[in-house]
Amino acid sequence: MNTIEAFKTVRDVPYRVPLALRENDVCCSGKCKLLKDLFEKQGLEVRYRVCTFLWSSINLPKEVSSVPHDDNSTHVWLEVLINDEWIIVDATWDSSLINIFHVNEWDGKSNTQPAVEPIETFSPQKSADIMNSENDEDILNDLKINGKFYKAFNGWLAENRVSVSE
Q1: Which DSSP string do the residues of 6-61 spell out, in sequence order?
Q2: Which neighbouring-strand residues pair with 83?
Q3: What is the pLDDT of residues 53-86, one digit of tens each?
Q4: Phi-psi region of 83 (alpha: psi -120 to 50; beta: other; left: phi over 0)
Q5: Distance between CA 137 and CA 132 in Å, rounded?
Q6: 132 CB neighbour count, 10 Å cutoff
Q7: For FRET with 74, which of 108, 128, 135, 144 sits at 20 to 30 Å CA-CA?
Q8: CA angle, corner 94, sides to 93 and 97, nearest 5?
Q9: What is the dihedral sign for C-alpha 114, 9, 128, 30?
């Protein structure tokens, strides 16, 4: 599997925010961990980049956006060192969400577009620290505050997925 195939494989895993501990993580962070592993097995130098964003900057329907939640959240993508330049690779939104989000294609050498509009992008070191410090208590606290919103968001995504063919 080459880098572009690895990107497409991870990108097209249906995005879903986990709603419980140990649930398969296929939101941005889980997809990044998987893609980082695949890229590193191919000998690429890869790093995380974490940013803050506002859920209100995403065009969500009222039935989702009205569910109580923290507006400020974090998002993660990868940067891959290609020809001595760090390239943005964001595999967040799967192809079946093409009707509601910009779904990235990647040519293996150019930047992709971040899946959200970043407010602040953290340094590579702080991004790595954030990705490596996640713990069960943090996840449970987040789910206590935002779990109903995530469930509504996941449901909206499921309702709006379309069949795609290559």
Answers
A1: HHHHHHTSPPB---STTS--BSHHHHHHHHHHHHHHTT--EEEEEEEEEGGGS---
A2: none
A3: 999 999 999 999 999 999 999 999 999 999 999 9
A4: left
A5: 14
A6: 8
A7: 108
A8: 85
A9: positive
Could you read off the pLDDT of 89-137 as tens digits, one per residue?
999 999 999 999 999 999 999 999 999 999 999 999 999 999 999 889 9
Q: In which residue are the tokens 């890869």 written?
A: 46
Q: Which of 152, 164, 162 is nearest to 16 (CA)?
A: 152
3-class secondary structure, 106: coil
Longest dimension (CA), the chain: 45
Residue 156: closest CA among 106, 100, 108, 107? 100
Question: What tokens does 40 get?
Answer: 């590193």
Q: What is the pLDDT of residue 165?
A: 64
**What percent of the chain has pLDDT above 70?**
99
